[in-house]
């Protein structure tokens, strides 16, 4: 029995089934005390391994997402931003919009929580093993521009187009010249009605013609983004400045 046990441990080590090794003794004891069948015992033992693989897979998906931080919906202060419909945001985390290949646009001034919400939805998607990637708009443009110069634009576009959820952050913070706008349009066009995209912007849609420095391209981009999209317009104060506002208020009360 002892030699058989040792041989089993050696086999599990060879197969790199670490969780089965860790839980082997307790599973054998549980089997003996509860008169479990061989099949039920094997199911119980392999469940430990599967559970750990699932945990590691989720961690890997979140890491691949390249999120700027790991803030989730539970970390968002909805009381500070009453203009946001909490139930609508929670519905996004069900990923129903991804199944329907719809987009989400967070529109509002700097600091109101657009990136936090976009990231939180992205993390929820990654945790459900949905391929997700986060990138700032300027970085995306620079990467596409570099790929074009290196004659590998098609591959780069396919790379960004493959994700079931792509999050493009901070559209409108920096101007985009007309040639670069065409690159951005190509990506949006490839994803149109195929995959879901979350965009955050501080600029009204009317000003996108100025941002992309080409009204026709801007309209074509908006046409594809907004055709199947939910726009969340956030009206409120900046999270980053709220502590300063509170200090000013307290000082004014003195």
UniProtKB/TrEMBL annotation:
Q: Keywords for this entry?
A: ATP-binding, Nucleotide-binding
Nucleotide-binding among keywords? yes
GO terms for MF? ATP binding
Q: Which domain of life is it from?
A: Bacteria
The Gene Ontology biological process annotation of the record reads: DNA replication
The AAA+ ATPase domain, residue ranges: 100-232
Q: Does the keyword S-adenosyl-L-methionine apply?
A: no
Report the Gene3D superfamilies cross-referenced here: P-loop containing nucleotide triphosphate hydrolases
Q: Which InterPro entries does this UniProt record tie to the protein?
A: AAA+_ATPase (IPR003593), DNAC/IstB-like (IPR028350), IstB (IPR047661), IstB_ATP-bd (IPR002611), P-loop_NTPase (IPR027417)
Q: Pfam families recorded for this chain? A: IstB_IS21
What family is this? Belongs to the IS21/IS1162 putative ATP-binding protein family.
* Cited NCBIfam families: IS21_help_AAA (NF038214)
Q: What is this protein called?
A: AAA family ATPase
């Amino acid at each position: 029995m002892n030699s058989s046990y040792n041989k089993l441990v050696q086999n599990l080590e060879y197969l790199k089934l670490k969780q089965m090794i860790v839980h082997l003794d307790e599973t054998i004891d549980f089997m003996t005390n509860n008169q479990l069948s061989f099949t039920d015992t094997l199911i119980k033992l392999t469940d430990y391994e599967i559970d750990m693989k699932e945990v590691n897979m989720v961690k890997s998906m979140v890491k691949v997402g390249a999120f700027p931080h790991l803030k989730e919906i539970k970390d968002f202060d909805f009381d500070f931003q009453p203009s946001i419909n909490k139930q609508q945001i929670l519905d996004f985390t069900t990923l129903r919009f991804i199944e329907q290949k719809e987009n989400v646009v967070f529109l509002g001034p700097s600091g109101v929580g657009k990136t936090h919400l976009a990231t939180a939805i992205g993390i929820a998607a990654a945790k459900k093993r949905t391929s997700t990637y986060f990138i700032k708009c300027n970085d995306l443009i620079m990467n596409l521009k570099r790929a074009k110069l290196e004659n590998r634009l098609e591959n780069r576009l396919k790379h960004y187009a493959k994700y079931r959820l792509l999050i493009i952050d901070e559209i409108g913070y920096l101007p985009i010249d007309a040639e670069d706008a065409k690159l951005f349009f190509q990506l949006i066009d490839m994803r149109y009605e195929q995959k879901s995209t979350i965009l955050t912007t501080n600029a009204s849609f009317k000003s996108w013609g100025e941002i992309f420095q080409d009204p026709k391209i801007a309209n074509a981009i908006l046409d594809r983004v907004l055709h199947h999209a939910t726009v969340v317009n956030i009206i409120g104060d900046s999270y980053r400045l709220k502590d300063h506002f509170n200090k000013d208020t307290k000082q004014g009360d003195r």
